[in-house]
Amino acid sequence: MKKIKILITLLIICTFMSLFITTSYAVDTFSASLTPSSSKVKKGDEFTVTIKLSRINITDGLATFRGTLKFDKDVVTMIEATSQNNWSVTYNETNNTLLFDTATATKTDVEIGTLKFKMNDSTSSMTAAIRLVSIEGGNAALQDPIKISDITTNVSVGGGVSTQTPTITPTGDDATNTNATVWPTTKPSNSPVNVPTSPSISPTVPVVDTPSPSPVNTTTNDNMPNTGAADGYIIPLMAFIATLGIISFVNYKKLSEK
Fold first, then answer.
1. Which class would CATH give 27-162+205-228?
2. CA-closest candidate to residue 151, choices 115, 197, 189, 102
């Protein structure tokens, strides 16, 4: 009987220790996204892609963001990278590495910069893909950086036909008559000829183009924590331990009363 009491007491102690000792399984995470200024861009036109940080769940906030830019140079040309909202940016053209940092770490959603591109005139592709890979963020020194999954945005290569109006230019005696039509016959020089007037015909070619829809962000990535245990079994385990402790305590009280 004494051994049973000791065993039950030990179970109670272990149960309460497991309840009071706090073990944090939450990991630091954040998300990033790419949003183009337009979902459809004509050849030769420029466009921008905005980088936004969101759902920042980091104890000390996020002060540094780094990633590698991937794009097809036959489709688009990188022009420049600019920062905003008190962030600074460094772009390494050799390896296409982007480094954003700020003096004040943030925990709120923020747009940290834009990337400017030009759609190449000679491209035959129908889509331009802009990717940011090997993404990581953290404190200013990137000690123990937090890694997240790659992000991508796609921009369609648009096109169209502009409105064209043929111009009929009168010559000779008809230059003063804006409504005169130049006939293909030659007028004799010794006899003036009145050229009949007729309304000018200006055929127009209708514009053939499809309207560009509003840009939609399609690139928000899911959080990808790099450390920690899964939370799926933690709560059931703690509930089981608590139940075991209560049962042990009740049995202990019953044995104590005997």
1. mainly beta
2. 115
